[in-house]
Amino acid sequence: MADFANTPLALPAKGMNLEQTLFCGQSFSWQRREDGCFAGVAAGHPLLLRQQGDTLLLTLPGGGSFTAEELAFWRHYFALDADYAALQARFSKHKKLAACVACFPGIRVLRQPFFETLLAFIISQNNHIPRITGIVQRLCAGFGRQLAPGLYDFPTPQQLAGLTPQALAPLRAGFRAGYLIDAAQKVAQGVVREDELRGLDNAQAREVLMRIKGVGPKVADCVLLFALEREDVAPMDVWMKRAMTSLFPRGMPAACKGKEGIAQQYIFFWAREHLPPSGK
DNA sequence: TGCCAGGCATCTA
DNA sequence: TAGATGCATGGC
Length: 280
Fold this sequence. Notes:
By secondary structure, the protein is α+β, with helices and mostly antiparallel strands. The protein contains 13 helices and seven strands. It has helices at 18-22, 68-77, 84-91, 95-103, 114-123, 129-143, 157-161, 176-188, 194-199, 202-209, 217-226, 236-247, 260-274, and strands at 9-12, 30-32, 38-42, 45-52, 55-59, 146-148, 151-152. Helix 10 packs across helix 11 (217-226). The longest helix has 15 residues, at 129-143. It is globular, with a radius of gyration of 19 Å. The protein starts with 8 loop residues before the first strand and ends in a 6-residue tail after the last helix. The structure holds a DNA duplex.
């Protein structure tokens, strides 16, 4: 609360629901604090965040003013430039997508840093959100720089590349520890490069990502979607099958309760790429 | 106490 | 090449 003694920077939320967006399972870097604010770090930028109606209140831990670069970073991270009203209007013309919008109208797809997203989704396999979050938080606290009290940067590929699975034992990531190290090594060595991935088509980028142990089609697609903002990541039927399996296990919109995360994200991306733009 | 989880690697037929 | 199985851990 003391941090909010500084005058926060107010940004229009444009319909975003922070609670839904930060904890739906697309990011594992945010904490809910007792005073009602959210604290997190992305790409080395620590932030305290609060929602008041349709306004986001941003504060730097420890005070100070946002630089233009930081402000641009967070606008991009929260996709505040995206026209979700138009997107949702398009979704609402599709029966099942309309149900998704009705269930979770405030979820936005964050644009997250590449390495953080890669490791988070490696951790996510055969796992669930509370535990994924715990592993990510322990990874940052154990191997990342402290940026503010209780807030740690995500460790760099170089920091993790030289470690052993035994060194990662405190994370309690299980069999995924070796996958994390392999990913860190391949990124640190340039076997997998973000700038190269951005220049490849989806099939090629997926193939490069799947050179990493523990990265299969699902994890690769998630990295392409959430970190690289790629279009048309997977065939329509694949995404819809994944989404519907998660969101509509019995074919009923009511079943979406508690399944906000991945299903909503899949559907948003599927719809964005496969529904015709409004007016067409 | 046992099942299951937002997959993937490995083994086997 | 497809299907079956094991994997670590913690929530429910």
